[in-house]
Amino acid sequence: MNDPLQAKAYAEADFSCADEALINRLQDYLISLSKVPSPGSMIVDLGCGPGNICERLQCLWPDVMVLGIDGSQAMLDHALQRQKAMAAELKRLTYRCSNLSSLVNQSVDLENSAALVVSNSLLHHLHDPNLLWQVTKYLAAPGAIVFNRDLRRPSSTEQAIALQQKHMQQAPSILIRDYLASLHAAFTLEEVQTQLDHAGLDHLHVNEVEDRYLEVFGTI
Ligand SMILES: C[S@@+](CC[C@H](N)C(=O)[O-])C[C@H]1O[C@@H](n2cnc3c(N)ncnc32)[C@H](O)[C@@H]1O
Predict the structure, then answer these.
(1) FRET pair for 1, CA 20 to 30 Å: which of 126, 150, 183, 218?
(2) From the CA of 146, how far away is ligand 1's center (Å)?
(3) What is the pTM of this model?
(4) Which of 49, 91, 87, 47 is nearest to 66 (CA)?
């Protein structure tokens, strides 16, 4: 999402309900494992966009380091601007502009470094979805937790339009266009399970959530 207009429309949209729901589910999952990220450990948010999830993670765990990685400088410019406005709360949040395809074996400082790897709404953007799973394996410390959420592909164009009208009726046309494109590009539960099998991550769980999401979570 390198187009500045696309990045601006995305950064200005209000995804707070969906973001909060993701954080709540992540917290519930961690509670079920009796785990919390320890002070000084690192959380990586892949495809962090304008930083909406990074900010929530940092506010939740102020002693933890949060690293947002995104391939679009236009998106990260919004993230950095927002961080400036919340500087006191986001002291341990950093961003890195990097395409996922150049992370594995080229970011040795990050290898096996993350206690928690998250992503929201990233998988369907990747030409090769295996990239997410390879990068996750590269970044995750032994015993790390992973938590990914993405859209899942509806079974027809009519269903995609119904979802858009239910969840994104009042939005700039650029966002509506991107939302429909994202629904079409998204994966089904079976497809994600096949990706995980190929990546050697078949022990991760894949769930359908609500009428439009998939969640992939587990321990590395
Ligand atoms: C739909 S946005 C999601 C942003 C954010 N995670 C959120 O929760 O709102 C997808 C983000 O993934 C980034 N992205 C897509 N493909 C990427 C890649 N190969 N490497 C790094 N970032 C990528 C895009 O630049 C964009 O910021």
Answers:
(1) 218
(2) 17
(3) 0.97
(4) 91
